[in-house]
Amino acid sequence: MWIVAVLAGLAILIVFILWVPLDMVLHADFDGKPKVRLRLLWLFGLVSRDITGKKEKPAEKRKAPTGKGKRRWVDIGVVYRVLRTRGLLRHIKTFIKDILSCFRFRDIVADFNIGLGDPADTGLMFAIIGPATAFIGSSRVHQIRIEPYFGDDAVFRGHSYGTVRLHPVRLVPPFLKFALSLKTIKVAWILVTNRWKRKK
After folding, report:
1. 106: closest CA among 67, 82, 139?
2. How far, in Å, CA of 45 to CA of 112, rounded?
3. What is the number of domains present in the chain?
4. What region, left, alpha or beta, does residue 62 occupy, with left being phi > 0 and alpha being psi -120 to 50 degrees?
5. What is the spatial distance between Cα 20 and Cα 118, in angstroms, rounded to a whole number?
6. Domain contains 193
7. Distance (Å, whole) CA 155 – CA 198
8. How far apart are the C-alpha atoms of 142 and 160, rounded to whole Å?
9. Gap between the terminal Cα atoms of the chain
10. Range of 93's domain?
């Protein structure tokens, strides 16, 4: 009986973890040296972690690989067979599209001054991107302002802020759809059989 209770509790915990939204907050400042900060917020902000801005410890020196004694796992022939899988590229494109649709962009703010160093080139660039930025900036959710700089120096300065929300449970259907499709299974079978043949 206690095994059933433990399994039920574990299932409830997994559902809870997948259901609670995860927020990714990005700050970027391009005034002088670029500074980018990405912060993850979970459990409605009670749990947070800054995953940028930390100094990495110097890695230990390792000997450069000589390449001797190594065998390639996948050769060109296998890559060709994988790419020949009918509808694979379209299937991957759909998978990426489904994954991106799970993210919800919120509170996007951008304020930049851009100059190419030549007023003519700057004017030409903004003649192309100006209408698009004006349309996006008119949204109540997204506040985007990009203004030209017609000086003689190349300039890219400003700051941006954005929040992306993800419910991890929304990723489950796209991953299952991709992993259980015949195309993915066929590619996996090609890779496994190639690996098995090489071990002989």
Report:
1. 139
2. 29
3. 1
4. beta
5. 49
6. yes
7. 55
8. 11
9. 47
10. 75-102+168-200
Beta strands in the chain (DSSP E): 22-29, 35-42, 47-50, 103-116, 143-148, 154-166
Task: Please state, for a pLDDT cut of 70, what percent of the chain lies above it.
Answer: 82
| Span 88-121, pLDDT tens digits | 888 888 999 999 899 888 778 888 888 888 888 8
**Can you tell me the distance from the alpha carbon of 96 to that of 82, in angstroms, rounded to the nearest whole number?**
18
Q: For residue 141, is it within any domain?
A: no
Q: Are 83 and 71 in contact (CB under 8 A)?
A: no
Sheet of strand 103-116, all strands in order from the earlier edge strand to the far edge: 47-50, 35-42, 22-29, 154-166, 103-116, 143-148
In a domain? residue 151: no
Residue 187 falls within a domain, yes or no? yes
